[in-house]
């Protein structure tokens, strides 16, 4: 199939892109990597009247550290994030998660911000950002605002970005101390969308007691799910069988997956508990190995 007719614009700076968004409103769509939008348009599930191609906005392609915050431009290709020494040093969770995205060709075109705005609840980047506690910077002609990742995802394939707005960058806090992270997912084949996924980041004290933990699950709700109660259960504790029994209780009580042609709700619920445990153990063990 082919997409419907549309007007095409290729702005050369952010202000020009924001002007075009303001003029087009609900009739316009941003395109960058096109990994999600193009198939949707080809299937006529979306028929925008105009496309605004932001691939020439070089100011949105960057990875940098500023005052304890890792900043990634929305147009930065996923493959660049995957291979970045800076990402590996300050956010190892992303380095571990991004290779699960499609295949090399997919990551060469797909953008960091595009994955977030598409907001697939099983996607690796949104799930990782939920575990890391990131912030999205969103611009319009009138203002620039910051949205915590917990408030960024609204529902399935829907975010807090309005039709006249452009997400320009993502800020990720750099955790200090003895930090460990882990990412796991289950899919039918490598490169397929995940059936269930889990991302975890942990810090431990000098006695290997958990100081801080964020655990996020994908594929179990309409958005990436942060299990906030996990922190209450695990803070100040070392790993033990009794502690994992409490973790399983939290996961069981929190997740509410749906059945579809790929997997049943029961299967997803079971794997959510399995992957939660695996990523907690992985992140905890890596944190214990850190010498500060």
UniProtKB/TrEMBL annotation:
InterPro entries, A to Z: CO_DH_flav_C, CO_DH_flav_C_dom_sf, Diverse_Substr_Oxidored, FAD-bd_PCMH, FAD-bd_PCMH-like_sf, FAD-bd_PCMH_sub1, FAD-bd_PCMH_sub2, Mopterin_DH_FAD-bd
Family annotation (PROSITE patterns): FAD_PCMH (PS51387)
PANTHER family linked: XANTHINE DEHYDROGENASE SUBUNIT C-RELATED
UniProt KW Oxidoreductase keyword: yes
Keywords of this entry: FAD, Flavoprotein, Oxidoreductase
Domain FAD-binding PCMH-type: 1-177
SMART domains named in the record: CO_deh_flav_C
Superkingdom field: Bacteria
A family per Pfam: CO_deh_flav_C
The protein's name in its UniProt record: Xanthine dehydrogenase family protein subunit M
């Amino acid at each position: 199939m082919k997409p419907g007719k549309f007007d095409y614009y290729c702005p050369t700076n952010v202000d020009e892109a924001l002007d075009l968004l303001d003029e087009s409103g609900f009739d316009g769509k941003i395109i960058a990597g096109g990994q999600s939008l193009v198939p949707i348009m080809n299937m006529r599930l979306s028929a925008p009247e105009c496309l605004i191609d932001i691939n020439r906005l070089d100011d949105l392609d960057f990875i940098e550290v500023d005052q304890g915050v890792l900043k990634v431009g929305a147009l930065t290709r996923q493959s660049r994030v995957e291979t970045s020494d800076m990402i590996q040093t300050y956010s190892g969770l992303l380095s571990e998660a991004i290779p699960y995205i499609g295949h090399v060709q997919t990551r060469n075109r797909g953008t960091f911000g595009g994955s977030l705005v598409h907001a697939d609840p099983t996607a690796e980047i949104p799930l990782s950002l939920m575990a890391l506690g990131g912030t999205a910077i969103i611009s319009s002609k009138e203002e620039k605002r910051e949205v915590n990742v917990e408030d960024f995802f609204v529902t399935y394939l829907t975010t807090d970005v309005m039709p006249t707005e452009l997400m320009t960058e993502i800020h990720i806090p750099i955790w200090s101390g003895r930090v460990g992270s882990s990412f796991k997912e289950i899919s039918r084949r490598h490169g397929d969308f995940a059936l269930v996924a889990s991302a975890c980041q942990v810090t431990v004290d000098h006695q290997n007691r958990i100081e801080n933990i964020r655990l996020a699950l994908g594929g179990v709700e309409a958005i990436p799910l942060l299990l906030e109660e996990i922190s209450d259960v695990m803070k100040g504790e070392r790993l033990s069988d009794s502690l994992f029994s409490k973790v399983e209780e939290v996961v069981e009580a929190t997740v509410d997956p749906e059945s579809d042609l790929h997997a049943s709700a029961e299967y997803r619920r079971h794997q959510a508990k399995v992957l939660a445990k695996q990523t907690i153990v992985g992140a905890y063990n890596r944190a214990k190995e850190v010498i500060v």
